[in-house]
């Protein structure tokens, strides 16, 4: 039966199990929007394509399925770019579908013509320019397969307007046939055996748990491996939640704002088991002094990550769940008591400096209120964040027990990510409590999506940490630029009135005593709520490894007298 | 150090751009790149000569990154394999009629050919290894080279030899881990 290209596109999305798309119509994708009315897929009209991209990303991370965002040609597509790069850096499976001018106009600088496949080439896992209707079925099928398989990532499909309109025979490709592209599945047995021998010799091993553990669904395998070998587990920012924070072997977050004892454990280890992480500079600090005594085993699905930043002794390239599951029965049981005691000593010292143990001084600290939020929500909410101080405090103090509930822009550090990704996450799991934690700066980057939340009735709670500063930049200026504050003072609108204008219930909180009550009030309302917290203006995130410093050279929070 | 890679890629529009963009993005320095069709219509073959200041570490990076491109089917490093490499140059040399004989005799030494004769210039076509072409160019230079164009190197391994495929995770990936060098496993 003949169908238009646009109908074929929707037909393929239905077959991929897509239930929601986040998009914005325009001249070059109108046939797609016309055909959409005949298909059982919910469309969310976003207020800016960047918001739509983050929603699809948030949906993907909360559900583990492929998210879909759409935009028209030209500015519609370029507005997606930040969201595409964000998904790329964090290996998030999102398919982006953009309209393009008719094929015969390409190259002629037609109205709203921009070379989108050219622009997105370095920030997509793969992209397609579709000029004919009969290419669409195969391309959509491939795009979803590529987005979710191997190391996931964004795939963009740019569909010319004529290809949306033309009619062609619809043949659904049952299989995806690609000449290249074969994601590795298992590591060779010989390499696994080498790994076992390295593990056997280790006295001070540490696991670095990355996002790959969650992407691969290897949480259980990791738990078995860690407990059997009694190896402590440090997490990257995006690896949080893969290993229960309450577990005695959990070390929490590593890196620039990682726990001091965690970074010390890494620096003093004799074996690093890097699971699905990529030795980002925010995690390693100075590479020359990074974990100098450690042998390194790198379990990773993407061979280009092996030896990229840190030269490892043994790469195990394959799907993490397979590799770790294969290792579990091969390794012996160990206790590593001495090593764990040593780490606990460092931990005790770190606790003394923790802001959590400070007496009340009448000020509202983000760390305290994140802890209160954690208590109020039983640690079970989906948490999305923007980027900056509040992100690090949330990572430090919202202790996660389970995966797929921590949605934050790690690699690309995209401000404005929090609110839209929370809306996307809500579509993935409407029964789950969802909190978007944002700073006053980041919130204003995508604040327009508040009205999208209203239109969709999205049950997301927005907590704005308002310190009237671009806090993280201010912190760097305080530490590294002699406190010369440059362009960090921020005058914001009255967030309560702003929310009110959107028809969103809102409250302002200025003291610690009000925090819990406000959180409970927000939780009692079905639908979006905004809480503005007027927090301590010049607090800093500790510990901090200055950029380029050795991982054990941390700036520590001064001990309160 | 220069490395030579052979990559089989899907014969689709934009693939050359993907490869070139990747090299730019990852800061790899291409010395030469030659692309053409193969015996299979759906496959193109690229020969790339790349500067690898860090030796095998860079070579690994290049291979692994190439495989990130969905259109890349196979990558081999033939730098150290017995192989035939060829480059072709067209060199337009200033040659008044009385100089043509000299150019002709130089050309015949290199088994090069004169493929065009004009009143005051000739075009010499020379095929061979890079060194051979460099040699030819040096000899022609005193006569006055007006223009030169080169195809870039193409390569093919001899007989049943294959290049190194050093993707970690593959059996026989040609990787010599430091691990063994340190004999920690002995």
Describe the protein's topology:
The complex is a heterodimer of chains A (561) and B (186).
Chain A: E1 2-4, H1 5-15, E2 20-23, H2 30-36, E3 42-45, H3 49-63, E4 67-71, H4 75-89, E5 94-100, H5 116-120, E6 126-130, H6 136-148, E7 155-160, H7 161-165, E8 167-169, H8 189-201, E9 205-209, H9 211-216, H10 219-229, E10 233-235, E11 250-253, H11 260-267, E12 271-275, H12 281-284, E13 295-300, E14 314-317, H13 320-327, H14 337-353, H15 366-376, E15 382-385, H16 389-397, E16 406-407, H17 418-428, E17 434-439, H18 440-445, H19 449-456, E18 460-466, H20 471-480, H21 495-501, E19 506-509, H22 512-523, E20 529-534
Parallel strand pairs in A: 2-3, 2-4, 4-5, 5-7, 6-7, 9-10, 9-12, 10-11, 12-13, 13-14, 15-16, 15-17, 17-18, 18-20, 19-20
Antiparallel strand pairs in A: 1-8
Helix pairs in contact in A: 1-2, 1-6, 3-4, 3-17, 10-13, 11-14, 15-16, 15-22
Chain B: E1 2-10, H1 15-25, E2 29-37, E3 43-51, H2 56-68, E4 72-77, E5 83-94, H3 100-109, E6 113-117, E7 121-128, H4 130-140, E8 145-150, E9 154-157, H5 178-181
Antiparallel strand pairs in B: 1-3, 1-4, 2-3, 5-7, 5-8, 5-9, 6-7
Give the termini separation of chain B.
Answer: 33 Å
Secondary structure tally: strands of chain B: 9
Q: Say which CATH homologous superfamily of the largest domain in chain A is assigned.
A: Thiamin diphosphate (ThDP)-binding fold, Pyr/PP domains
Strand content of chain A: 15-25%
- What is the CATH superfamily classification of the largest domain in chain B? ACT domain
Predict the CATH topology of the largest domain in chain B. Answer: Alpha-Beta Plaits
Shape of chain B: elongated
Describe this structure in words.
The complex is a heterodimer of chains A (561) and B (186). Chain A has 561 residues and is of the alpha/beta class. Chain A has 22 helices and 20 strands. Helices cover 38% and strands 17% of the residues of chain A. In chain A, the strands form four sheets. Chain A has a six-stranded parallel β-sheet, with helices on both faces. Chain A has a six-stranded parallel β-sheet with strand order 11-10-9-12-13-14, sandwiched between helices. In chain A, strands 16-15-17-18-20-19 form a six-stranded parallel β-sheet, sandwiched between helices. In chain A, helix 10 packs parallel to helix 13 (320-327) and helix 11 packs antiparallel against helix 14. The mean pLDDT of chain A is 96. With 186 residues, chain B is α+β, with helices and mostly antiparallel strands. Chain B has two domains: 2-82 and 158-175, ACT domain (Alpha-Beta Plaits), CATH 3.30.70; 83-154, Alpha-Beta Plaits. Helices cover 26% and strands 37% of the residues of chain B. The radius of gyration of chain B is 20 Å and the shape is elongated. Chain B starts with a strand and ends in a 5-residue tail after the last helix. In chain B, 33% of the residues are buried. The interface between A and B is medium-sized, with 35 and 34 residues.
């Amino acid at each position: 039966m003949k169908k238009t290209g646009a109908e074929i596109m929707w037909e393929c999305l239905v077959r991929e199990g897509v239930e929601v798309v986040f998009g914005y119509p325009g001249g070059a994708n109108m046939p797609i929007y016309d055909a959409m009315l005949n298909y059982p897929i919910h469309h969310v009209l976003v207020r800016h394509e960047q918001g739509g991209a983050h929603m699809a990303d948030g949906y993907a991370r909360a559900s583990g399925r492929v998210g879909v965002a759409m935009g028209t040609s030209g500015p519609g597509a370029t507005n997606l770019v930040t969201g595409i790069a964000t998904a790329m850096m964090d290996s998030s499976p999102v398919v982006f579908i953009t309209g393009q001018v008719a094929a015969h106009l390409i190259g002629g600088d037609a109205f709203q013509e921009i070379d989108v496949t050219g622009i997105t080439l370095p920030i997509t896992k793969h992209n397609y320019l579709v000029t004919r209707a009969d290419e669409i079925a195969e391309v959509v099928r491939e795009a979803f397969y590529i987005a979710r398989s191997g190391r996931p990532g964004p795939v963009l499909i740019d569909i010319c307007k004529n290809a949306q309109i033309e009619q062609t025979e619809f043949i659904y490709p049952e299989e995806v046939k690609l000449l290249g592209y074969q994601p590795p599945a298992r590591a060779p047995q010989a390499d696994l055996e080498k790994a076992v021998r390295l593990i056997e010799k280790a006295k001070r091993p540490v696991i670095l748990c990355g996002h790959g553990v969650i992407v691969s669904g290897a949480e259980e395998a990791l738990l078995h491996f860690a407990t059997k070998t009694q190896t402590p587990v440090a997490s990257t920012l995006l690896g949080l939640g893969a290993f229960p924070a309450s577990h005695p072997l959990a070390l929490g977050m590593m890196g620039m704002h990682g726990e001091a004892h965690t970074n010390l454990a890494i620096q003093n280890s004799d074996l690093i088991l890097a699971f699905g992480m990529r030795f980002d500079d925010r995690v390693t600090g100075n590479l020359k002094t990074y974990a100098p005594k450690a042998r390194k085993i790198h379990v990773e699905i993407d061979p280009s990550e092996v030896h990229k930043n840190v030269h490892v002794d043994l790469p195990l390239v394959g799907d993490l769940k397979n590799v770790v599951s294969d290792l579990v029965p091969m390794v012996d049981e160990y206790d590593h008591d001495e090593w764990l005691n040593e780490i606990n000593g460092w931990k005790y010292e770190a606790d003394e400096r923790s802001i959590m143990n400070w007496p009340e001084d009448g000020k509202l600290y983000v760390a305290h209120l994140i802890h209160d939020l954690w208590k109020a929500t039983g640690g079970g909410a989906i948490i999305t964040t923007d980027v900056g101080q509040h992100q690090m405090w949330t990572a430090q103090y919202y202790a996660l027990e389970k995966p797929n509930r921590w949605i934050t822009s790690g690699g690309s550090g995209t401000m404005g990510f929090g609110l839209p990704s929370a809306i996307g996450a809500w579509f993935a799991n409407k029964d789950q409590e969802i909190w978007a934690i944002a700073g006053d700066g980041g919130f204003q980057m995508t604040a327009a999506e508040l009205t999208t939340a209203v239109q969709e009735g999205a049950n997301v709670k927005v907590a704005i940490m308002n310190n009237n500063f671009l806090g993280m930049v201010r912190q760097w200026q305080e530490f590294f630029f002699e406190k010369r504050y440059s362009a960090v003072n921020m005058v914001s609108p009255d967030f309560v009135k702003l929310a009110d204008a959107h028809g969103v219930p809102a409250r302002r909180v200025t003291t610690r005593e009000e925090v819990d009550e406000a959180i409970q009030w927000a939780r009692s309302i079905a639908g979006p709520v905004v809480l503005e917290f007027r927090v301590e203006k010049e607090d800093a995130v500790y510990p901090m490894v200055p950029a380029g410093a050795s991982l054990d050279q941390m700036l520590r929070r001064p001990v309160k007298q | 150090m220069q490395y030579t890679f052979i990559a089989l890629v899907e014969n689709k529009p934009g693939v050359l751009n993907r490869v070139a963009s990747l090299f730019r993005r990852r800061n790899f320095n291409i010395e030469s790149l030659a692309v053409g069709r193969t015996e299979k219509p759906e496959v193109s073959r690229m020969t790339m000569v790349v500067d690898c200041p860090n030796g095998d570490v860079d070579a690994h990076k290049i291979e692994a990154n190439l495989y990130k491109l969905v259109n890349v089917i196979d990558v081999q490093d033939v730098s150290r394999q017995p192989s035939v490499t060829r480059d072709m140059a067209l060199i337009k040399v200033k040659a008044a009629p009385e100089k043509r004989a000299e150019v002709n005799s130089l050309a015949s030494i290199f088994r090069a050919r004169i493929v065009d004769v004009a009143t005051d210039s000739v075009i010499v076509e020379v095929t061979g290894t890079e060194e051979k072409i460099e040699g030819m160019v040096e000899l022609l230079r005193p006569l006055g080279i007006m223009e030169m164009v080169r195809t870039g190197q193409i390569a093919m391994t001899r007989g049943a030899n294959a290049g190194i495929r050093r993707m970690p995770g593959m059996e026989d990936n040609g990787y010599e881990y430091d691990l063994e060098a340190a004999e920690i496993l002995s």
